[in-house]
Specification:
Blueprint (H helix, E strand, L loop, with lengths): L2 H14 L1 H38 L5 E6 L8 H5 L12 H8 L4 E6 L2 E8 L2 E10 L13 E2 L9 E5 H7 L23 E11 L15 E16 L14 E4 H6 L5 H9 L10 E5 L5 H9 L3 E5 H4 L1 H39 L1 H9 L4 H44 L12 H18 L1 H8 L3 H6 L2
Helix pairs in contact: 1-12, 2-10, 2-12, 2-13, 10-13, 10-14, 12-13, 12-14
Length: 459
């Protein structure tokens, strides 16, 4: 029997008991909709988490530290590689070598220091951090007041919202109401004085150490007038927490000031190197998919590395387990629907015993009878699968709309909690057909075993 003939015969048989077969198909659709709904929720939550991390600029950044600092990001890095005393210092030579690694866009030293900022003759102790121009796209600067830095060496300053409130004397108590960003706008364009300590190596007046010199240097207090150009109203998250900085200056300016950092004092005390060294370097790669390759290359240079991908391994494992459990619970309704398929096909055998007997009497083989019942099960699975993915998609859209309406009432940005990619929809339909065919195994085998004489005598 040809496949097309079997399909036509199966469709005709299904139309004869339309109500019963329709109810069975609806049961399959409900099962598929429940499966799509559960998995779409897991995929949506995972995409929402990944999107926020990717937008934060953390996925495409690798942090590099020296093994000389006796620090590591995991046990494996602690035990692997050379001893700390035999490791390379994280200096300008290392920075140049890392910048040559394929897929590396830029390498910037981590310049952070606690110092005094003077505004309207009032001192404010805070942490200042250098920031490269590539951080302009960071979600930290969404909805910021003013502008980002005009250039890498501009004498400009961007304030974090909390520090801006401190400069204006606005209460920062925990139970204080949220400050209207408009109240912070008067700070834009104002001048503020940065007080810092410049390191000057012996025999050098440019802040750079001459070749062959020792680690002897002087510390000279300096003042630098900066203009406030922007205020970041979003709170920093993740690796950009409170220790990242409350005031930001361009990275080029931060490097040109030759500010005395804790790492400089540490290196001078240890006398490990005669060159300025960094506590850590931030390596920006072309894409998150290349981060692991860049990490491996940098580790071969005898440095320790860390990226957010290392920290999200447990997060990815959590979502994998969550998807498995959601898929299992979503499949329960489809398994229950498969019992309806078995019942429907068994009832069809009882109603069509004479028909089966006639078919076998005129030469139909057992395989042909099985194909007919398998075709009926597959048609119900296909119809139920298509209807189910449609219901699941509509349910997801409704939940997204309802959730975003609720978030809007709370003055929160919209989120996409529900995601139904095409491969999930197609997979759900194929799964429904497969379950339906498996459910038809027993009824098809039972129909094929009918003896023609007994089937023709059945009343």
């Amino acid at each position: 029997m040809r496949f097309g003939d079997a399909t036509d015969l199966a469709t005709r048989n299904l139309r004869e008991a339309l109500l019963r077969n329709s109810l069975t198909t609806v049961g399959i659709a409900v099962g598929v909709a429940s499966l799509v709904a559960m998995l779409s929720l897991g995929i949506g939550l995972q995409q929402m988490a990944n999107k926020r991390l990717e937008k934060s600029g953390l996925f495409d950044t690798v942090v590099v530290t020296s093994r000389r600092d006796l620090r590591s990001f995991n046990r494996e890095q602690e035990t692997a590689g050379p001893a700390a005393s035999e490791s390379r210092p994280l200096d300008d030579v290392a920075r140049t070598d890392i910048a040559r690694v394929p897929n590396v866009i830029e390498v910037t030293p981590d310049i952070r220091f606690i110092t005094e900022l003077r505004y309207q003759d009032k001192p404010h102790l805070t942490m200042v951090a250098g920031m490269p121009l590539s951080d302009r796209s960071n979600d930290f600067f969404d909805n910021m007041l003013g502008n980002f830095f005009s250039s890498s060496d501009a004498a400009e300053l961007i304030l974090q919202k909390r520090f801006a409130e401190e400069l204006l004397g606005i209460s920062q108590a925990r139970n204080a109401p949220e400050t209207d960003p408009a109240k912070l706008k008067p700070l834009i364009g104002q001048e503020i004085t940065l007080h810092y300590a410049e390191r000057i190596y012996s025999g050098d007046t440019a802040g750079k150490q001459p070749a062959g010199a020792g680690v002897d240097f002087s510390i000279v207090p300096r003042d630098k007038t900066l203009r406030i150009v922007g205020i970041a109203v979003e709170d920093p998250e993740g690796m950009r927490g409170a220790t990242r900085g409350r005031a930001f200056i361009p990275q080029g300016l931060a490097e040109s000031l030759h500010i005395m950092l804790p790492s400089d004092l540490r290196e001078s005390m240890r006398s490990f190197t005669s060159k300025p060294a960094y506590s850590s370097l931030g390596v920006k790669v072309t894409s998150a998919s290349k981060a692991q390759r860049v990490q491996d290359a940098i580790r071969k240079m005898r440095f320790n590395t860390f990226s957010i991908l290392d920290a999200t391994k447990s997060l990815r494992r959590f979502f994998a387990v969550l998807d498995i459990f959601l898929g299992i619970f979503g499949s329960l309704a489809l398994v229950i629907a498969s019992l309806g398929i078995v019942n429907t096909l068994l009832m069809a055998i009882l109603e069509r015993r004479r028909e089966i007997g006639i078919m076998k009497a005129i030469g139909a083989r057992d395989r042909d009878v099985k194909i007919i019942f398998f075709s009926e099960a597959a048609v119900m699975g296909l119809a139920g699968g298509l209807l189910g993915v449609t219901l699941g998609w509509l349910l997801g859209r409704a939940i997204n709309l309802g959730t975003n309406f609720y978030l809007k009432q709370l003055a929160m940005p919209p989120e996409n909690l529900w995601s139904s990619p095409w491969w999930l929809m197609a997979g759900a339909v194929v799964f429904a057909i497969a379950v339906s065919i498996l459910s038809g195994l027993f009824p098809a085998a039972r129909a094929a075993k009918l003896e023609p004489v007994e089937a023709l005598r059945y009343e």
